[in-house]
Amino acid sequence: MSTGPGLESLVDQTISVITNDGRNIVGILKGFDQATNVILDESHERVYSTKVEQDATAPISRVELWKAGDKIKTGEYINKEAAELTSKIEGVQQLVLGLYIIRGDNISVVGELDEELDANLDLSKLRAHPLKPVIH
Amino acid sequence: MLFFSYFKELVGKEVIVELKNDLAISGVLHSVDQYLNIKLENTRVVDQDRYPHMMSVRNCFIRGSVVRYVQLPPDGVDIDILHDATRREARGV
């Protein structure tokens, strides 16, 4: 079956992947296969703030933020700590990941990122409820 | 294969796909494959205030394995044909 919803049409375009554990990774699609394994170039993760109200928690310094980003990236934080942290940070943090392969098993949605719509998003003000993990 | 064929009939119709992470995405069904992966056009997340993660996405590919429900338009279902097809499939013809 060669027709149907392959990812051919998205190759070399910027895509936004939502993983089964609720992460959002944005990058340029370089390759894919039958099992939806995906190769992304120049990718970054978007970490959404879960901050409820402004001034609800103490503001976090830039240095703290930078250190935190590094710790999230290296997986040093376990989920609870990361959740606590994202409730303090405002807006969307972008963590650089570079060249990345995501195993298809772990992919929920692959979206074609509309560059124009994306440029109009004010990432510094955006907040989100954390996406729930997929339970099969 | 029955549901694959069935979904192929629904191409072009407006559907809401509810995922196993409780995210619900509405859009026009563009295509389906044998894994029941789904491609939607003109997508919108139903609860966008809560989940703004796909605000700049208008076309998306949904992996079949994470789909919980597909909500169909009432006129998209011909119950008689579906009854017939399921019975035939059950008989193994």
From TrEMBL, chain A:
Residues 2-116 form the Sm domain. It comes from the Eukaryota. Transmembrane segments: none annotated. It is found in: Nucleus. Keywords: mRNA processing, mRNA splicing, Nucleus, Ribonucleoprotein, RNA-binding, Spliceosome. Pfam families: LSM. Gene3D superfamilies: 2.30.30.100. InterPro entries: Lsm8 (IPR034103), LSM_dom_sf (IPR010920), PTHR15588 (IPR044642), Sm (IPR047575), Sm_dom_euk/arc (IPR001163). Signal peptide: none annotated. Plays role in pre-mRNA splicing as component of the U4/U6-U5 tri-snRNP complex that is involved in spliceosome assembly, and as component of the precatalytic spliceosome (spliceosome B complex). The heptameric LSM2-8 complex binds specifically to the 3'-terminal U-tract of U6 snRNA. LSm subunits form a heteromer with a doughnut shape. Belongs to the snRNP Sm proteins family. This is U6 snRNA-associated Sm-like protein LSm8. It comes from Platanthera guangdongensis. The gene is LSM8.
Automatic annotation (TrEMBL), chain B:
The keyword RNA-binding applies. Keywords: mRNA processing, mRNA splicing, Nucleus, Ribonucleoprotein, RNA-binding, Spliceosome. Component of LSM protein complexes, which are involved in RNA processing. PROSITE patterns: SM. It is found in: Nucleus. Belongs to the snRNP Sm proteins family. Residues 2-76 form the Sm domain. Its main location: nucleus. This is Sm-like protein LSM2. It comes from Platanthera guangdongensis. Pfam families: LSM.
